[in-house]
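Standup notes, structure subgroup. Blocker cleared on the glycinamide ribonucleotide input:
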Amino acid sequence: MLFPLNRPARLAVFASGRGSNLDAILSNFPKGHSLASVSLVMSDNADAGALEKALTRGIPAYTFPFPARKKDKDGLGRKAFEREAEHYLEAEQIDLICLAGFMRLFSLEFNERWQGRLLNIHPSLLPEFKGLHPQRQALESKVSEAGCTVHFVDAGVDTGPIILQKRVPVFATDTEESLSVRILEQEHLAYPEAIRLVLEGKAKFEAVL
Ligand code: GAR
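Run returned:
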């Protein structure tokens, strides 16, 4: 059994951008918290706000290039990132990885090695609107509800077992920006809640399939 552990879990957060979900995780699980705290932040983007947020709190934070699939046909860039990531994941004895706005896809081997210990947040009510620009997809589809999903990562893109979802209304006056802000507020509640469920052993990869 992976979780619960009989000690605080060591989290890694992977983020490509500004890191507001990282902030939410940090404020729910500050240093010394009995359930978990963030021990590592990794990014594919040297300019990610998430790196600075980590470093100002004294959390180890590293960046390593991870080229987009189109520019990495042989997958060597991805392999190099994964090797680097595994090095720090082991050095920091990480129990659970949280992808928080991490815009790259891992290999099957990486996903399998971390199965049940690798979470992602996506700004749609999966299985609707996978992939890029889910808020735009929601507006174009004229749905009346949107939201966010925290799920375990599996071999697919935005397809793994769902841990929890939060819903928001979509208004006729919404722009991609206004809808994204409304969803993001819910993301900041959803991610810490999902992490808690996983660490308490209440949501498991197999059990929520
Ligand atoms: C969030 O909306 C997150 O759900 C999304 O990127 C944003 C990152 O914001 N992730 C994806 O689209 C992954 N497919 P943040 O950097 O402020 O946390």
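Discussed briefly. The chain has one domain: 9-199.
Next: hand off to the docking folks.
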